Automatic annotation (TrEMBL):
One of its GO terms (cellular component) is pore complex. It comes from the Bacteria. Its main location: membrane. InterPro entries: Gram-neg_bact_OMP, Gram_neg_porin_domain, Porin_dom_sf, Porin_Neis. It comes from Paraburkholderia caffeinitolerans. This is Outer membrane porin protein 32. SUPFAM superfamilies: Porins (SSF56935). Keywords: Cell outer membrane, Ion transport, Membrane, Porin, Signal, Transmembrane, Transmembrane beta strand, Transport. Residues 1-22 form the signal peptide. One of its GO terms (molecular function) is porin activity.
Length: 371
């Protein structure tokens, strides 16, 4: 009887496992991207091999399980890496730097996720950047991540938030809403930083060739430890106002986005006030994507970053061409120019501007493979 009982139990478990497997799925996906770069940085010329110029090199696991009545459990964990040397991207202390979350979704009620997520503000701007918010060669990302003394204490939209709860509504006749709340988090790379709680609200519409979106984000105060400063810098509570619009006609998609980042006033004796690092700033981008052929796309973007009250600004332009060899493999080219004025030091991520009032010229040739 004991042997028969074990056999029946084993058969039952096998049947249940088979049923679960039929109702759930897990997918391994990723991108391998590498490019050769030439840069003239304020008169200094350099050649290098880098990773992620078109799409960030990464791999991830995502999956879902049917729970019944239209409800699904979902998850996604995703890390970034550098193809040229095999290292982790941006933060070597984080396994899943890009995103890591689990949640529930329903076609009727929307999606609720918990973990490290992309912010609503990111999803509003993403469709209007011809270079898709790329963290290496997008001039828009260069403007977001720009570091200069006048805005050191003004927080920027990071694109992702840890310890977050995110709600995404279902798409109703083209309208979609987002709401996110993130709890405080501490990181050690690229510099030691503690961020305060974050609120992010957004809404978008897409239909009849038109796309429009607005977003509001508030980051509570935090701290950041930077080389050369006598103490940790107090990061100010910062409000971010973002708008984006695009219109497609024929093979051309015209886009525009604008962001205004306003910090709260620094207390008179704080390090932020002593350094004068509490200025507001704005960033705008005008762009176009042209689908020249079924396999070829041309991207054009012009950006301006302006620091209010400091007379620092940067203008830039970039042109790109993507040629698809197949559905998964593409070759690409990027050529860009930036000019800093005043004490602005904006440049492409991963590169340090060579002095004030410097210009940068960049040319890149690369390959992307998706799997």
């Amino acid at each position: 009887m004991r042997i028969v009982g074990k056999s029946i139990c084993g058969a039952t478990l096998a049947l249940l496992a088979g049923t679960a497997a039929a109702q759930s799925s897990v997918t391994l996906y990723g991108v391998a991207d590498v490019f050769l770069q030439y840069m003239d940085n304020g008169g200094q010329h350099a050649y290098s091999e880098r990773s992620g110029g078109n799409t960030g090199s990464m791999f991830g696991l995502k999956g879902s399980e049917e729970l019944g009545n239209g409800l699904k459990a979902i998850f996604d964990v995703e890390t970034g890496f550098n193809v040229n040397n095999g290292t982790l991207f941006a933060n070597t202390s984080s396994i899943f730097y890009r995103q890591a979350w689990v949640g529930l979704t329903n076609d009727r009620y929307g999606t609720l996720t918990f973990g490290r997520v992309y912010q609503p503000t990111f999803w509003i701007v993403y469709p209007t950047d011809p270079f898709r918010g790329n963290e290496i060669l997008s001039p828009l990302s260069a403007g977001v991540l720009a570091v200069d003394r006048n805005t050191l204490a003004t927080q920027y939209v990071t694109g992702r938030t840890s310890n977050a709860i995110l709600y995404k509504s279902p798409n109703i006749s083209g309208f979609q809403a987002y709401a996110m709340y993130g709890f405080a988090a501490t990181v050690t790379q690229p510099v030691p930083q503690t961020s305060g709680n974050t609120l992010d609200l957004a809404a978008s519409y897409s239909g009849y060739g038109l796309y429009a979106g607005i977003a509001y984000q508030y980051q509570h105060p935090g701290t950041e430890t930077l080389p050369g400063l006598p103490a940790a810098l107090n990061l100010l509570g910062t409000e971010h106002y973002t708008g984006a619009i695009g219109y497609r006609f024929g093979i051309v998609n015209l886009t525009f986005n604008y962001a205004y980042n306003k910090p709260h006033d620094a207390s008179s004796r704080s390090l932020a006030a002593l350094l004068g690092a509490d200025h507001s700033n704005s960033l705008m981008e005008l762009g176009a994507t042209i689908q020249a052929t079924a396999a070829d796309a041309i991207e054009i973007a012009g950006v301006e970053r302006n620091v209010r009250g400091a007379h620092d600004n940067t203008v830039g332009v970039e042109v790109g061409v993507d040629h698809n060899l197949s559905k998964r493999t593409a070759l690409y080219m990027r050529a860009g120019y930036m000019k800093n004025n005043g004490s602005a030091t904006m440049t492409w991520p991963g590169v340090t501007a060579n002095g004030a009032n410097a210009t940068q010229v960049l040319v890149a040739l690369g390959m992307t493979h998706r799997f």
